[in-house]
Amino acid sequence: MSHNPTNVPNSTVTRDLRELDHGTDNIYESIVIMSKRANQISVDIKEELSGKLAEFATSSDNLEEVFENREQIEISKHYERLPKPSLIAVDDFLHDKVYFRNPAKEQD
User: Is residue 78 part of a domain?
Assistant: First the structure.
């Protein structure tokens, strides 16, 4: 899963709290959903980055052999520029891109 959210702001955004209970009618439940989504995104991004950087791993144990690889640096910079997982998760939640369910509510 490649995360390239071009429409997600990369800085803090003031949000209307009334928008955040959309779909749940409970701000706290919404926050839990966004938090879990942010954790999923964070794990996905970390695995994706690790996979790309693993291609540059050398089998040498020699610590003296440190070299700069332009492509590796560019990949790292790309991931550093991505919005934080929490910002992506809020955007996903507000745009109905997150599937969630509450089994306790379904029993009622």
Answer: yes
DSSP SS3 for 36: helix
Taking only the tens place, the pLDDT of each residue in 75-103 is 888 888 899 999 999 999 988 999 888 88
The string over 5-18, giving b where at least 16 C-beta atoms fall within 10 Å of a residue's C-beta and e elsewhere, is eeebeeeeeeeeee
CA angle 40, 45, 50 (to 5 degrees): 130
**Mind listing the pLDDT tens digit for each residue in 42-51?**
999 999 998 8
- Tokens read off for 50: 């690790």
Q: How many domains are contained in the chain? A: 1
How far apart CA 80 and CA 97 sit, in angstroms, is 23
